[in-house]
């Protein structure tokens, strides 16, 4: 297994992301081969266990050979589990690198624009609320004045000015 994670040096963000995604595909291919090998080992272990269970009186050499094969297969599966764990860690690192590249290059700009739009809508609603409060003749004059000033300050924020 190659532990190197390659990130594009030149070119654009899409080339870097493509390179990282290609590495993820390679990791997934290697992982699927290891999983297939592990399944094959588990099938052989099952066959050995069945033979041991069903044949109570095995010749000593056959018994020893079955136990030796069983131990070898268990050890091989332990090694495969370790390699699979390493591949899972590498895959997670590659995904976090992709997320970092996307974040650093403004892929989340759409989310930021959406948030700004929501904030703007809330400010507009507040401005309308305080403008109508300031126009309400049944309210105390000082409260109406304060609401009018607040609506003006919100308007200033919305227009991008400083108050």
Task: Please summarize what this structure is.
Helix content is 82%, strand content 0%. The protein has 163 residues and is an all-alpha fold. The protein has two domains: 13-107, Helix Hairpins (Orthogonal Bundle); 111-159, no CATH class.
What are the key terms here?
single chain; 163 residues; mainly alpha; Helix Hairpins
Protein model, in words:
The protein is an all-alpha fold and 163 residues long. The chain has two domains: 13-107, Helix Hairpins; 111-159, no CATH class. It contains four helices and no strands. The longest helix has 45 residues, at 60-104. The radius of gyration is 33 Å and the shape is elongated. The relative contact order is 0.09. The model has no long low-confidence stretch (mean pLDDT 85).
**Percent helix range:** over 70%
Tell me the Rg in angstroms: 33 Å
What multimeric state do the chains show?
Answer: single chain
Q: Output the CATH topology of the largest domain.
A: Helix Hairpins
Number of domains: 2
Could you give a short account of the major beta sheet? none
Question: What series of H and E elements makes up the topology?
Answer: HHHH
The coarse silhouette is elongated
| First-to-last CA distance | 61 Å
Percent of residues in beta strands: under 5%
Number of helices: 4
Q: Find the structural class using helix and strand composition.
A: mainly alpha
Give the tally of β-strands: 0
User: What is the level 1 CATH name of the largest domain?
Assistant: Mainly Alpha
Uncertain regions: pLDDT < 50 for 5+ in a row?
none
Known CATH architecture of the largest domain: Orthogonal Bundle
What's the mean pLDDT score?
85
């Amino acid at each position: 297994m190659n532990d190197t994670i390659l990130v594009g040096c030149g070119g654009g963000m899409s080339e870097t992301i493509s390179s990282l995604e290609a590495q993820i595909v390679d990791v997934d291919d290697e992982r699927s081969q290891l999983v297939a090998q592990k399944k094959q080992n588990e099938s052989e272990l099952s066959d050995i266990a069945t033979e041991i269970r069903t044949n109570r009186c095995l010749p000593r050499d056959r018994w020893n050979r079955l136990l030796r094969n069983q131990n070898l297969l268990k050890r091989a599966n332990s090694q495969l589990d370790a390699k699979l764990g390493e591949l899972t860690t590498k895959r997670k690192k590659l995904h976090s690198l992709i997320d970092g590249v996307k974040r650093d290059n403004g892929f989340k700009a759409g989310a930021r624009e959406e948030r700004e739009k929501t904030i703007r809508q809330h400010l507009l609603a507040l401005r309308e609320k305080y403008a109508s409060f300031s126009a309400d003749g049944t309210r105390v004059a000082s409260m109406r004045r304060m609401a009018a000033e607040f609506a003006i300050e919100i308007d200033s924020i919305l227009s991008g000015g400083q108050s």
